[in-house]
Amino acid sequence: MTGSSRNAAQAERWNGEGGQQWIDNRERHLREHQRLLPHLFGAAAISPGDRVLDVGCGCGETTIAAAQAASGTPGSGTDKPGSGGSALGLDLSAPMLEVARRLAAETGVASAQFEQGDAQVYPLRPGFYDVVISKFGVMFFDDPAAAFGNICVGVRPGGRLAFLCWQDDQHNEVFGILLGAFPAGTRLPSPSRDALFEDPRRVSELLSGTGWEDVRTVAVNEPAWMGSDVADVVSYSTPPASAPTECGSAPGRGWSRPTAGQASRPNARGLRLARSCHAARA
Ligand SMILES: C[S@@+](CC[C@H](N)C(=O)[O-])C[C@H]1O[C@@H](n2cnc3c(N)ncnc32)[C@H](O)[C@@H]1O
After folding, report:
1. What is the 179 CA–ligand 1 centroid distance (Å)?
2. Is 186 in the pocket of ligand 1 (CB under 6 A)?
3. pTM confidence score
4. Is the pLDDT of residue 160 over 80?
5. Ligand 1 lined by 96 (C-beta under 6 Å)
């Protein structure tokens, strides 16, 4: 890995079981995130010739799509060497990057490159990138301010940042349905991890304080495919990160039932549930 990792626990997770699970469910995640992607690429506005950095690129699908957009051949399955645009996928996980390199080779996208490294400390070439993107890859830093400061150094003046991060469990039907089994007013214990990225105000403060300008966040809510039938959905579902406790017994977040608009919608093509994230741009 280039540069030392400050995020040892995350490096272990994504090089171990967490990474393998993500690889095993790669195509499921693609379908689940399908309607969220346009919000990322719309905000990134990648043009031919752009140099793109994809932070926490995982198995590299967004890096490959970014490389195609940067080489002027979006969605074509190949790129046009010589147009100058390219994308670098940066990730902690060696096994996920192995998949990414294989996918790029299979799709013939030579302008998508991959590096193993910790984005919080990775020695990015100052002012090199036009655009930084990330799909759910920026929520794991042990020092988010250091990480976004480091990433900012790698971006040219006037360059752009666009990323997706999840909203809280209450706004994500996949967890909201489970939580809905508990009485209204049930309080959740404090989240096991810092919920910074669930709060658009804190995200804006973080970015503004680490060198980014014109920061905006937009709430995104889209139906997401969760599985083809009951067995498929159950095989994948995991319980919410924090289980509800007795009303008022823990100094946690307040929580109320999912809104009426949130309801499961199984049909012949499977189950879709509302997935809610923030699209941040700067
Ligand atoms: C939830 S996965 C998302 C992967 C991919 N962007 C996608 O949407 O399929 C989070 C990714 O962030 C990576 N990651 C976590 N912390 C990182 C860090 N400090 N530097 C680089 N990558 C990191 C993980 O290895 C993992 O691949």
Report:
1. 27
2. no
3. 0.85
4. yes
5. yes
Q: Distance (Å, rounded) from C-alpha 116 to C-alpha 92?
A: 5
| Length of the chain measured in residues | 282
Looking at the CA of residue 118, tell me the nearest atom of ligand 1: 20
Q: pLDDT digit string (tens) for 63-95?
A: 999 999 999 876 666 665 557 899 999 999 999
Which residue among 10, 64, 116, 163 has the greatest number of ligand 1 atoms within 8 angstroms of its CB, and so is best to mutate?
A: 10
What is the distance, to the nearest Å, from the Cα of residue 173 to the centroid of all Cα atoms in its chain? Answer: 18
User: Would you say the CB of residue 90 lies under 6 angstroms from ligand 1?
Assistant: yes
Are the C-beta atoms of residues 60 and 104 closer than 8 Å to each other?
yes
In the three-class reduction of DSSP (H, G, I as helix; E, B as strand; rest coil), residue 116 is classed as: strand
pLDDT band for position 252 (cuts 50, 70, 90):
very low
| Structural domains in the chain plus CATH codes | 8-169+190-222+275-281 (3.40.50.150)
